[in-house]
Specification:
With 635 residues, this protein is of the alpha/beta class. The protein contains 26 helices and 20 strands. It folds into 4 domains: 200 residues, Rossmann fold, CATH 3.40.50; 156 residues, P-loop containing nucleotide triphosphate hydrolases (Rossmann fold), CATH 3.40.50.300; 105 residues, Winged helix-like DNA-binding domain superfamily/Winged helix DNA-binding domain (Arc Repressor Mutant, subunit A, Orthogonal Bundle); 73 residues, HRDC domain (DNA polymerase, domain 1). The protein binds adenosine-5'-diphosphate. Adenosine-5'-diphosphate binds next to α3. The site of adenosine-5'-diphosphate has 12 residues, from α3.
């Protein structure tokens, strides 16, 4: 009790703060108690105080390893300004300056000695350490020890032996306690920190990853076309970052936005220094409102007033994703983060992982193959975690907070896309869902969602024989198979269906799914794919309102077989009339016909590219081709 009040007054007298922040107090307590610890606190949370205050209170000097000379200088200046003995040792100093500093430490005038990690490579410095009374061995930016982190520094691997070389200021045997701090650490990086810094029975603190002013969304999309359609709406007139997985994809995004009249530019490692500077400056002065960066290269782009971040392609890890998301809304304003989610993008990511591992195996100093394999596996694992976020059924915010081990994870946030869109099914929807679940069950629970959807909607062409004659084959004949797939996704989200973890992603029913199918469970909450199927005019955009609501928009796409049949007819007609095929019908018109499947001369007139003259000339023939094809499909 008393001790606590003492600490408060020390906090006030030395640092001028009225109280500890909630995340600080337990870390300071553990540091003072002499534990090894790892504290994961986001930037700005007040990490420094957690080792500075103990350093002031404890006898001896605290060593603080810090990777950036500029940060070191800032902290030393600030401490000295507050009347606290602090100094730094780094390569930018003369030998004399360093000698003076060490003399001051020996004389007991320094409570915090900041050192660059490369200092600890010097055996001379290590021998000096052996004589210093060290209270705590502090490692700032501790993730630098891990190759899985984004900022690996080989010198950090020398820290554990350096700490072992230190003499404790309290006269006890053994090395001084080691305190590790970082702003970012996935579970893997955390394990590395503990292992590679040699932390003993460490207390681990994780705090404050929540960014309540950022609204999280995952938007399933069917492909690049839908991404291009969505991008300008998601960005709007707001200041935004768009992240992409490749240079080409970032350029594609910029082109799309420019075409929509927005001031956008691509930003990636393929630009010249001059171009890059130009983009940075234009973004800083506001003449550019959107930057489309590759995940690997978004770092130089920074403004506190960003309102939107869109990930056009899935990033490689949830850690990278959340870090990029964290760049918006830093001034506290409401911000929106949207991940455009298409399973096909995972393939691109897998390819990038593969390629990197091949490159690394093929360098002058190749990594140890075992190490390389270990790393490749870890990257795959990270990617799978990212995918499970994209596929998450529950609250997106909680999914992230749980991943970072943040104790703030708890009740659903009610603001993320998943929380907003979850609804209780009404009876018609429940019936629809039961049909889908039955289809999965009848199929023997060993097919992917595409086959199941094709079977249910009676698209027999690509079906394996086992699925062509089930009692559920064609049960949802009226429905679009792609939307049925979305329902299967939604059912997975609601926990009624589960996918196999392999690449085939076959779907099976969970216990909940069986209960719902059997009618024993009558209520189901899920993200209804509120679908607008556009079947009237091909090529026209779905209603804006539907898109604004965040609905899944599926436009009718041309049926490939029908396109072929129509082209076959066109070729025959063209050679008969001795005319080029496109004069008879444009490819676009053929695509529209194959999507819309008109059944009368009147309906043909609705198809772009078909006027009364063409309908009079070819209408019957076209309808015949369409009719034959429909008969084939058993429609
Ligand atoms: P980090 O290293 O976690 O990014 P800092 O240690 O630089 O963050 O602290 C961020 C800011 O918060 C600093 O300006 C610091 O003075 C301030 N700060 C730290 N602890 C407190 C506190 N208990 N009360 C008020 N301000 C604090």
């Amino acid at each position: 009790m008393n001790g606590m009040r003492d600490l408060d007054s020390l906090l006030h007298t030395h640092f001028g703060h009225a109280a500890f922040r909630p995340a600080q107090a337990p870390v300071v307590d553990a540091a003072l108690a002499g534990a090894d610890l790892l504290a994961v606190m986001p930037t700005g949370a007040g990490k420094s105080l957690c080792f500075q205050l103990p350093a002031v209170v404890l006898p001896g000097v605290s060593l603080v390893v810090s990777p950036l000379i500029s940060l070191m200088k800032d902290q030393v200046d600030e401490l000295v300004r507050r009347g606290i003995g602090a100094a730094a040792l780094h390569s930018m100093q003369t030998a004399e300056e360093r000698r003076d500093t060490i003399a001051a430490v020996r004389a007991g005038a320094v409570k915090l000695l900041y050192v660059a990690p490369e200092r600890l490579a010097s055996s001379h410095f290590i021998s000096i350490l052996r004589d210093l009374p060290v209270s705590r061995f502090v490692v700032d930016e501790a993730h630098c020890v891990s190759e899985w982190g984004h900022d690996f520094r080989p010198d950090y691997r020398r820290l554990a032996p350096a700490a072992d070389a230190c003499r404790r200021s309290d006269g006890q045997p053994g090395r001084p306690p080691v305190l590790a701090f970082t702003a970012t650490a996935t579970p893997e990086v955390r394990d590395d920190i503990v292992r590679l810094l040699g932390l003993q029975a460490p207390q681990v603190f994780v705090s404050g990853f929540d960014r309540p002013n950022i609204e999280l969304h995952v938007r399933p999309v069917s492909g690049d076309r839908e991404k291009r359609d969505l991008l300008p709406q998601l960005v709007g007139r707001r200041r935004a970052l768009v992240y992409a997985s490749t240079r080409k994809s970032s350029e594609d995004a910029a082109e799309t936005l420019i075409a929509a009249g927005l001031a956008a530019a691509a930003y990636h490692a393929g630009l010249s220094d001059a171009e890059r500077t130009r983009v940075q400056e234009a973004f800083a002065d506001g003449s550019l409102t959107v930057v489309c960066a590759t995940n690997a290269f978004g770092m130089g782009i920074d403004r506190p007033d960003l309102e939107v971040v869109v990930h056009k392609d899935i990033p490689g890890s949830l850690e990278a994703y959340y870090q990029e998301v964290g760049r918006v809304g830093r001034d506290g304003r409401q911000a929106v983060a949207t991940l455009l989610w298409n399973y096909a993008d995972v393939k691109t990511r897998e390819f990038l992982i593969e390629r990197r591992s091949e490159e690394d195996a093929d360098t002058v100093e190749p990594l140890d193959p075992e190490e390389l394999q270990h790393r490749t596996e870890l990257e795959r694992k990270k990617l799978r975690r990212m995918v499970s976020y994209a596929d998450a059924s529950g609250c997106l915010r909680n999914t992230i907070l749980r991943y970072f081990g943040d104790p703030a994870a708890g009740a659903d946030c009610q603001t993320c896309g998943n929380c907003q869109r979850r609804t209780t099914l009404h009876p018609d929807q429940l019936l629809h869902v039961r049909k889908i679940l039955s289809g999965i069950a009848r199929g023997g629970e060993r097919w992917g969602r595409r086959k199941i959807a094709a079977m249910l909607t009676g698209q027999l062409d690509d079906l394996p024989p086992a699925l062509t004659a089930l009692s559920t084959t064609g049960l949802l004949r009226e429905h679009d198979p792609r939307i049925v797939e979305k329902w299967i996704d939604a059912l997975e989200g609601a926990g009624a269906v589960a996918s196999s973890p392999d690449m085939y992603r076959t779907v099976r029913l969970t216990t909940l799914g069986r209960e719902v199918m059997a009618g024993r469970v009558e209520t189901l909450d899920l993200l209804v794919p509120s679908v607008t199927v556009k079947r009237a005019k091909s090529g026209r955009k779905a209603p804006k309102a539907a898109r604004d609501r965040g609905d899944v928009v599926a436009e009718a796409e041309p049926d490939g077989g029908l396109v072929d049949a129509l082209k076959h007819w066109r070729r025959a007609e063209a050679s008969r009339r001795n005319m080029p095929p496109y004069v008879i019908l444009h490819d676009k018109t053929i695509a529209a016909l194959a999507a819309v499947r008109p059944r009368s001369a009147e309906a043909l007139l609705d198809v772009p590219g078909l006027g009364p003259a063409k309908v009079a000339q070819y209408g019957d023939a076209i309808l015949q081709v369409l009719g034959q094809s429909a008969a084939h499909a058993g429609d």
